[in-house]
């Protein structure tokens, strides 16, 4: 039995480099090699084009939250946060070669990891650094977040999510689990805050 695509999303002229789905809002985000990033409905309708600042042309990583935030990391080291309406909300540059990004369940916090081996927690709305985990001797290549799936109560915000696990994969072949990621990591800036 063959399956047929639910929708074919068009609008890019170059190969796709990143994609994200926000099922809660019915949105698909995608970025292509020469930009821009596009927002489609799950039915395939092109809704918005996300245009970053002039120097942000090649999207590399993208995440979307159910609260309507879109975070894009560009090849030149620039992060941009957009609303789903296409409004640019914040920009920030980093000198780390970022390889992985994740959003907290409530969409308020961005976790980033890259070649310097440090996981940084940022506020999504302004991309301000809130916390930096102690670095590792190997660059981060992948990252995953897991939330406590055993809880029967709906969790409205990250502040209630005490049982969150952060998993990072490194280029030397190691995997590191940090558990739990605690609320105080997000509320107290670390030394060396940028």
From TrEMBL:
A GO BP annotation: intracellular protein localization
GO terms for cellular component: cytosol; membrane
Domain Neurobeachin beta-propeller: 4-145
A Pfam family reported for this protein in Swiss-Prot or TrEMBL: NBCH_WD40
Keyword Transmembrane recorded: no
Record has Acyltransferase as a keyword: no
UniProt GO molecular function: protein kinase binding
Keywords: WD repeat
Superkingdom classification of source: Eukaryota
Full protein name: Neurobeachin beta-propeller domain-containing protein
Species per Swiss-Prot/TrEMBL record: Neotoma lepida
């Amino acid at each position: 039995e063959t399956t047929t695509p639910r929708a074919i999303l068009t609008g890019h002229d170059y190969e796709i480099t990143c994609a994200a789905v926000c099922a809660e809002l019915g949105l698909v985000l995608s970025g292509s090699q020469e930009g821009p990033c596009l927002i489609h409905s799950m039915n395939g309708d092109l809704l918005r084009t996300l245009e970053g600042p002039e120097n942000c042309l090649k999207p590399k990583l993208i995440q979307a939250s159910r609260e309507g935030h879109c975070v894009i990391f560009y090849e030149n080291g620039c992060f941009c946060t957009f609303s789903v309406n296409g409004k640019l909300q914040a920009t920030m540059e980093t000198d780390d070669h970022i390889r992985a990004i994740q959003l907290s369940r409530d969409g308020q916090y961005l976790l980033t990891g890259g070649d310097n081996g440090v996981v940084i927690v940022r506020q999504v709305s302004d991309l301000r650094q809130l916390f930096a985990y102690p670095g590792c001797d190997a660059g981060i290549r992948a990252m995953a977040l897991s939330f406590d799936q055993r809880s029967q109560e709906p969790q409205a915000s990250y502040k209630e999510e005490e049982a969150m696990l952060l998993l990072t994969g490194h280029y030397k072949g190691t995997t590191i689990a940090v558990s739990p990621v605690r609320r105080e990591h997000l509320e107290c800036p670390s030394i060396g805050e940028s």
